[in-house]
Amino acid sequence: MANRTIRAAAVQIAPDLTGRAGTIERVLNAIAEAAEKGAELIVFPETFVPYYPYFSFVLPPIQQGPEHLRLYEEAVVVPSPETQAVADAARKRGVVVVLGVNERDKGSLFNTQLIFDADGTLALKRRKITPTYHERMVWGQGDGAGLRVVETKVGRVGALACWEHYNPLARYALMSQHEEIHVGHFPGSLVGPVFAEQIEVTMRHHALEAGAFVVNSTGWLTEDQISSVTEDPKLQKGLRDGCMTCIISPEGRHVVPPLTAGEGILIADLDMALVTKRKRMMDSVGHYARPELLHLVHDARPTQPVRRIEEEQDLTTSQEQEAEDV
């Protein structure tokens, strides 16, 4: 891997705000376009399918009911025909695809990141551990089981969504698993120009600290789409800018100029030798760590609302009965 070059693509396009079918079509078209340009890794924005819940940022809670219910109807079940379509595209093109979705699991929605390996297998399904601010009314919480780096055709890949990057321990959990390529997802078209500046700082810092490449994708809304979310000109200001689709080297530098407005696909070649070059100087989870002074406890067990112990009870009862018979 040290002497390999990986071609990565970071996609910044608009979703179809009318539903998942249209957005999935855009995903498949972008996979085809990026693959034709030689991409081996293709990254899409946060909860891109069917769309990021922009309504939750500008509407008061009492008005969110209809849009929240519509998001339930359009959300993605994993597995489903939609995830199979992406898996098939990844396998057909021989590419690794990282896609953000609104995942529906029975009565709950989750901000979920899916990593499809180049053979079409779902290498990772992880849920954002803590939805941010307005998002807490939309999504449930993820768990430590998703803080996992996976082996793929392009190397060891880890992923976090949006402000999870402001949780240094979540980042360290992935760094400790020696990720070589880190994938970031943000919604884009949110908050304003300051959001793009913050994203850039965060992505460049993680690349430096992790000694890894960072491929980050943010979404984009057209003016018509912004108007469809809210007709209030003052609130519309909160649905513009905030885009920073970028590809960062382990040295904290942009490999290609970032995409901060409009639709497009960034393509860059990642010289994986730079991972070792950076870590030779500073390996945060290796020779630069001081685990006897500071260390992370990572509970990687999936959380469950119910733990059923009927079988244990049956076994105990059986053992007690055998003792009485003796």
From TrEMBL:
Residues 304-326 are annotated as: Disordered. Pfam families: CN_hydrolase. Residues 6-272 form the CN hydrolase domain. Coiled coil: none annotated. Its EC number is 3.5.5.7. This is Aliphatic nitrilase. The keyword Secreted does not apply. It comes from the Bacteria. It is an enzyme of class 3 (hydrolase). GO terms for molecular function: aliphatic nitrilase activity. Keywords: Hydrolase. Belongs to the carbon-nitrogen hydrolase superfamily. Nitrilase family. PROSITE patterns: CN_HYDROLASE, NITRIL_CHT_2, PIPLC_X_DOMAIN. NCBIfam families: nitrile_sll0784 (TIGR04048). It comes from Tritonibacter multivorans. InterPro entries: C-N_Hydrolase, C-N_Hydrolase_sf, Nitrilase, Nitrilase/CN_hydratase_CS, Nitrilases_CHs.
